[in-house]
Amino acid sequence: MKNQLDDFLELFCLHVSKTIEKSTSWVVNRVIPYIQQNYYDPNLSLEQIGEQFNVHPVYVSKVFKDHVGKGVLDYINNLRIEHSKLLLEEKKNATIEQIAELVGYQNVRTFSRVFKKYTNISPGKYRNESL
């Protein structure tokens, strides 16, 4: 009887684990593509993503971090900075302000601060060094 109960509990735990995994995999399947398609939206935020998927922002945050290994805002900022680096190299005539707007920052100071945080260099210096 004990062995049967152990087997049952093992199967039950496996089932619960798979159910939880399925219920949280929407982050990888839907939230990440949504962020990648909307990273340039200055209103993109944890709250906005929660509203989009009808889920509480705290839940989105926890599940995202568990699956991706970094927070939503960190993921968004990293994506924006990577795209801004490409734009800084390709759009030589665009101002830093224009680049900031193209990747979702409404304030050039915020863009510059975040850019430097992720690259250890200012956007202007990055552009000059990539020439």
From TrEMBL:
Alphabetized InterPro entries for the sequence: Homeodomain-like_sf, HTH_AraC, HTH_AraC-typ_CS, Tscrpt_reg_AraC-type_HTH
Pfam families cross-referenced by the UniProt entry: HTH_18 (PF12833)
Residues in HTH araC/xylS-type domain copies: 29-129
Keyword Transcription regulation: yes
Keywords for this protein: DNA-binding, Transcription, Transcription regulation
Annotated PROSITE patterns: HTH_ARAC_FAMILY_1, HTH_ARAC_FAMILY_2
Residue stretches in coiled coil: none
ATP-binding found in the keyword field: no
Listed name of the protein: HTH-type transcriptional activator Btr
Species of origin: Clostridium oryzae
Gene transcribed to yield this protein: btr_10
